[in-house]
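Assemble and predict.
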Amino acid sequence: MAVTPENCRDTVIAEVLERYPREASSMIAVLQDLQEELRYLPREVLDRVAVTLGTPRTQVYHVATFYKAFSLKPRGKHTISICRGTACHVKGVEKIADMLRALLEVEEGETTGDGLFTVQSVRCLGCCSLAPAIMIDREVYGQVTPARLGKIVKQYRKESAND
Amino acid sequence: MIETPAQLAELRASARKILLNGRPKALVGMATCGLATGALRVHEALLAASERRDSSLLVCETGCNGACFLEPLVDVVLPGQARITYANVTPEDAEELVASALEGTVYAKRALARSNAEFFLIEDFSSPYGNADLAPEVEKVPLYSQVPFFRDQMHLAMRNCGLIDPASLDEYIAKGGYAAASKALTEMAPEEIIAAIKRSGLRGRGGGGFPTGRKWETCRKAHGEPRYVICNADEGDPGAYMDRAIIEGDPHSIIEGMIIGSYAIGARQGFVYVRQEYPLAVKRIRKALAQAEECGLLGRNIFGSGHDFTIRVNRGAGAFVCGESTALMASLEGRVGEPRAKYIHTVESGLWGKPSCLNNVETWNNVPVIIARGADWFAGIGTEGSKGTKVFSLVGKVNRVGLIEVPMGVSLRKVVEEIGGGIPDGRQFKAIQTGGPSGGCIPAQYLDTPVDFESLTALGSMMGSGGMIVMDDRTCMVDVARYFLGFLKEESCGKCVPCREGTARMLDILTDICEGRGRTGDIELLHDLAEGITDGSLCALGTSAPNPVLTTLKYFESEYRAHVEEHRCPAKVCRALIRYRIDPEKCTGCSLCAAGCPKKVIAGERKKTYTIDQSGCIKCGLCLDACRFDAVVVE
């Protein structure tokens, strides 16, 4: 069988579903892994999770829409999380958010046209001593200034162009 | 394998020899705060510099000792002399740092503090790094007890943070780790352990402050099998991050606390529910669990006591409400995190309807200390109603930001002025926010209040999980209230109407006030809504949701009135009520403001003056930060 994006994705899904016991309590962990692998949760994947774990589809949909970690729309290659913790608020993270909106020309929750970045708010990254902070994928950037933000975004764009 | 107390003691003795083995050692603080400020590059540079010299210097990783404002931090152990803490280390410092470590001297440029001995809190003894005369350069470095940030601190919960490699089980054991579990499981009856925890006065560190011993006792006596113990590591309060630091710096301490708790309660299965926003913490706790399982500290017949216990890690999926115990348990069951009414307590009917004992990271981490040092020793620290120490994250507009651990009962003033070093840029202290979104803002006239559960509650705030956000005169208290309500509206799970709709309406009113549309009667309306939300919500998120508004109204009503009646923001924060202008007298035409303007609405000619087109200005204030000549004015 030829390796196509479809059957490659199929293998990934099957692998994730094998990682956990087939019971309702595995649902969040399964969806988290799928979200990470696929960068979003397409409808047919939710259906498959429901069948595999033996739970009603409504319950899978309920969970997938309740938690902020899940997205039903494709996310960009990199997720930029703006910390909305108290320390970051007091230290002016709003300015960083303004700058980010201007740099990427997207609103929060949206993905850039080139599919490179999705911008989101998170409640607190727990890096309050580094406020204002943002996280790109799993990398935390502290004491972000507008100038530094520009450099960081440029770096990611450059790396992506080289890929 | 560690199957008996004797085997643990043997391993401790050999691991301690290695820990204190007399080779120079450099420990790089590599918790999230360190990594974000470049600790990885410092670590690499130290390794490279050490290899180039073919030296005996050990370069290791460690967690964060709390001085986050000085990251990247490197501790160097000079055999025969001292342990020196270096601050703000850069990769460029590596050569000289390694050279000084090998020569047994000090790299003075970055030296911050020193300690003369390795302290073993669990056994209450210290082992001097050496007894030779100190080199004069070493002697010049102040002792920890002389450095204002550390002077008044007492590290119980953070006993190993920044001192051991969190990925090394041996180092944890060398510091006395698992000795308390070994003692509890082999020498104490479950009832004795519960009695000790009760006598110690330990109260939950996650927010509620419920007496831990009583919780354990009720859970032990509850009917139903199996029982569960749960570690709540879904640290949700914005502005608090001690749980992350403890998991990243000392993950085994939580496992040990849970082993003791599970034995006391009679549980065989435990869960750690940790936020997925903390990827490093997830990695560290998973690794620690694997190590503990591998050597038999988890699993069957622990220490030959007949007690079986295993722990599973679940990652939170981004919902603040899951820090609430019933919501967290629903989430563990794979459902949405909606709290339920607690007529029946979770200790009796929790996870899958079984008796479940949930405690916070810092609470679990305190347990081994109490067992090892004794309940009376622990109860000797703190105040009448609040025993022991508490870790606080001191952040916001304060000079020294970081994690501090102090005995309960120290004053807010000591925390802000002495440990925190006061407010930056010579500004005025305005308020300190404690207790997360359920807490409140405490104004300057109450700075002498002792920090304990009762005193903070009396002021309308609370201890919460230990966030302390300092605010200066450039912080608008109405904006702060609006910020918290925005947060709570977003995080309300939606189950109770008063919380779901009430927080949204309060937010509408506060937004109106901040944007100059405040009307007479708004303040009274906020009070009314607050009462309704408090009375009509099930969980603590809802019942305490109005607190940020109530405390700011209580202490800063004049600021609300200025917004409502005069459409003026005294702190010059609320964007609709201010405007930015460039003073032509001061403008040098350097163009820095124009270059940094995200909306490109600043125009002018170089070396002449620049002006802001008010129609397109979003009032982000970046021009104000960019200007080096104080030419940008807020009015």
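Chain B has five domains: 8-151, 178-378, 389-472, 477-566, 579-634.
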